[in-house]
Amino acid sequence: MARKSLPKGVTYDDGAQRYRVQYKDAQGRWRVEHAGTNKQAAVRLLARRKREAAKGVEVTRDASPRTHLDTYAERWHARQRRIGKRNADREYSSYRRHVSPLIGCSPVGEIKPLDVLELSETLIARGKISPKSVRNCIGIVSSIFRLAVLEGAVEVNPVSQTPRDGLPSMSSSGGRTYTRDEALALLMDPRIGWDRRVVYALQFFTGMRIGETCGRRWHDWKPDAKPLGSLRVHTQYDDQPLKTAKSGDSKERIVPIHSELAKVLWCWQGQGFEAVYGRPPRPDDFIVPDPRNMSARTQSQVTKAHKRDAELIGVPNKGSHALRRFMISAARSDGARGDVLEQITHNARGAIIDVYTAWEWPALCEAVSCLKVDPERLPGRIYDISYDICVSQNANPRQSLRLFGGGGGNRTVVRAPGFA
User: What SS3 class is residue 128?
Assistant: First the structure.
């Protein structure tokens, strides 16, 4: 290739069959970078480097096809955190655990679509993660390569050229839901820890996602709302944006509290929380925090505990997300309108008329109340306790519960201080 046809600062490496750019950085030192196989991309890279040098920006990255994938993954992770991506740390952890040991040391310029296909097949054959998680790992690799393409290290994202039939099917692991008896067993079996049964109860009666369940604090619960109490769902996990949130739209929603769930929360607030955590709950506490540090539980923590609990009581492990599917399926089977439930569990996103529809509170409460629960169908009541609001004498129904234990005795549990 004739050198005179190239602009100053751009050269062509005949041996590697790639362009290189030469420029002075912000410190006045000469630097050389590989710039891929496209002439125009090399020219753009050189112009960008010169602008950065003029602004005094220290160039620390090496946009070269010889850069290892692990190096680009670190750079990608830093950028994901800088722009506020919700799952940046979790996705990078997944990359380090599953992808890095296999192709992390490979130069990005040498990773081809066949390598991506082999990565997928290897992860599936190992059987350590679900097909859905394998697809998520391939998606992370694709996102890393998009950064490499943007910086000029490679011309084409190899994941985009990988045959779709080489990736596991999404339907192979999803869509399962619990039967009514299986779901109730997770709430009622005394072999499962009290705190985890409250987590399952929240999912069972509200249809919240795992992160939404973990992120609920006591001040989100308004038991005095009529005809049912309410729960504000505006964050997930440790005050992170909701999954459906976009820019300025938080996608906040208000979820009615089923009458049976209200009993669970009263008992958990008045007695169970202190029994597990050693002190009464405060308004800013998570409803079911991590007992190690009182912060929000993580997705890994909830899903692993769910698997252990299901195996312990002999229930097929269909994943904790199956409780969300159960709530929606069971409520619709019991007569709830699907379009109303959608506003409770998802935010309406169907036909355009649904976008402009805001169901009134009684209609939302009616949909939740359609979910019929008969604890007597299984041996042992929820937490082995039956509930009765104490309305006798001078007791305030909002501040105390009379709990009748299995031994026949009874006691009154006063609501924790600090709550209105």
Answer: coil
